[in-house]
Amino acid sequence: MKLKEIERTAVQAWSPANNHPIYLATGTSAQQLDASFSTNATLEIFEVDFRDPSLDMKQKGALPASNRFHKLIWGNFGNGSSESSGVIIGGGDNGVLTMYSAHRILSSKSDPVIGQAEKHSGPVRALDFNPFQSNLLASGANDSEIFIWDLNNFSVPMTPGTKSQPHEDVSVVSWNRQVQHILSSAHPSGKAVVWDLRKNEPIIKVSDHSNRMHCSGMAWHPEVATQLVLSSEDDRLPVIQIWDLRFATSPLSQLEGHTRGVLSVSWCQADPELLLSSAKDNRILCWNPSMGEVVYELPIRSQWCFDVQWCPRNPSVFSAATFDGWINIYSVMGGNLEAQQKTQADKISSSFNNLDPFGTGQSLPPLQVPEQVTQTTLIPPLKKPPKWIRRPVGVSFAFGGKLITFGLTKAPGQQMQQAYPHQVFISQVTTETEFLLRSKELQMALQSGNLLDYCQGKIQTAKLPFDENLWNFLKVNLEQESRTKLLKLLGYSKEDLQKKIASCLSNRIPDKQPLPEADGTNAAPDQLLVNSSDDVAAVSSSSAFFDNLIPQNMSTLEIPVTEDTDGLISQALLLGNFEGAVELCMRAERFADAIILAIAGGENLLKETQKRYFAKQKTNLSLLLSSIVQQNWQDIVCTCDLQSWKEALAILLTYSKHEDYSQLCGMLCAMFWYNLPCRGYFWTA
């Protein structure tokens, strides 16, 4: 999307990244004439204000120049003071190299020219500032001339070494972005020379073996020190070659997208995956060099673009200078050109307040825009977010104290074909050291299966009674006969109960102790109490859970565990000791309770209880009950009064077995006829 434009036949240079606001310097281009055929030269500075929606740029300073410019560059030198905005270096005809003070041009003060040299023998087409030392400037001209200038002493330059052979023009010079003493130069023949200023000699030369590579541009990789790109302006080979000096026998890869020669390249310093190129096919392409694909393309224009440059301060913006006399500023974030033009037209109309500007007082008619033959130009943004707006790092917590982080890593030595790795790191965050140690101890116990020793150790180290009881209960669940041991932990031991029962049977203990009052007085400390129905209703009303759990109109239960007879019977029942409970009931002459408990205790206990009950009862009815319950029909026959022989016979007819009936009747007849007592022997009928 186009942001700004200015009509100038000029070369361009952006202000350094640390300058604010953003400026663009333009110098009248050499070997180009506009429609006026003027030979004058001007150096201008424009403010690039993106807050202003218009396409125009405000001129902030202008200076007539004695020479037109082949190359313009803006550096940080002298930028330490508050009144300095750096220096602008212009390369002109006849080897003239001029240094201007940007601050003086902007403020229109004293002479902005602070240095000038004429050491080169031809036009100066190549300039570059050292990114590590702002006072070092490299320049290139005809006859393989390359000079290194110290701006503190602008009169005497140095050379990087002996001139390369054969002598030819220097198209581009560029400092390495990672190593400050490495400089490279490119020549129209397709050769690139890498210089080591410490050795004062070239260390390597790279060139295409096809001899069709005419270098028009060169740029170092922003992060990989050994990689650079070369562009070819030959229409027979309109390519961009990526070289790695470690494998300098042939290009590492080749970008093929232009149909005619490439005129300019610029590598984004904020994102190594963005490389701009302009060519004679009127196209401006943005490449991802590592993938070899075009990620952004501007619409085709009617004129060649001979220079593209990224803005150092705003990495999404770049400028393009064309041969038709325009310098345009674009954004790689996309946009709609027609919508922007309509907004500009509406703004112009609103400035006249919809009145005729010629004074007739009539309202302006609606703007009639002729229909365009071409379709709407919608410029898509980059295919993926550029590096400067990507999330550089991220973090998220996970279960178990895990911390997940991610971020991009820099690997200066890796190959261009490989994408930068996205690494995810998983680390353990420890905030509660003691808790973590306890957790590891438990994990080891679970893996080894030695949980009993683990629980025992916790019991021994417990500081509170509650903790000790808790671990005791956990340990008992892992042992044999856990139920019996759990009863002991609850305070109910069979041995202790036997002693209490024996003591109760040998001593006189009251059958009952006073029941606790409603306010809790006289209540035993270990007594489990369930309150009255009114209290339960009050509690249940506060919890829907208890409302569903306890049926309505259900009577409550109070389990006594005191030391009287009722309490001992309750404790015996809690432990399943029916014999002891029956014994206590028999001793207290609570025969009904004893019989009921004996039924629950089993057949043998029931028989023994019945026998003891009948032994204590000596009434006629009790004797009858004893004989019927115990099925002792001989006692009925032998002990029956002779006046009750009919009743005795009725009992035999009702209860006796068929095989015993005859014998029992014979015994009854013998007693009736002979009136003799039965002595335990049998009579026959």
UniProtKB/TrEMBL annotation:
Recorded GO cellular component terms are: COPII vesicle coat; endoplasmic reticulum exit site; endoplasmic reticulum membrane
Q: Does the keyword Glycoprotein apply?
A: no
Q: Which domain of life is it from?
A: Eukaryota
In what way does this protein cross or attach to the membrane? Peripheral membrane protein
Q: Which residues cross the membrane?
A: none
Tell me the Gene Ontology biological-process terms attached to this UniProt entry. Answer: COPII-coated vesicle cargo loading; endoplasmic reticulum organization; protein transport
The record's section on Pfam families has:
WD40
What ranges cover the WD repeats? 117-159, 255-297
Enumerate the subcellular locations listed in this protein's record, separating them with semicolons.
Cytoplasmic vesicle, COPII-coated vesicle membrane; Endoplasmic reticulum membrane
Which residues does UniProt call coiled coil?
Answer: none
Give the similarity note: Belongs to the WD repeat SEC31 family.
Per its record, how is this protein called by name?
SEC31 homolog B, COPII coat complex component
Q: Which organism is it from?
A: Malurus cyaneus samueli
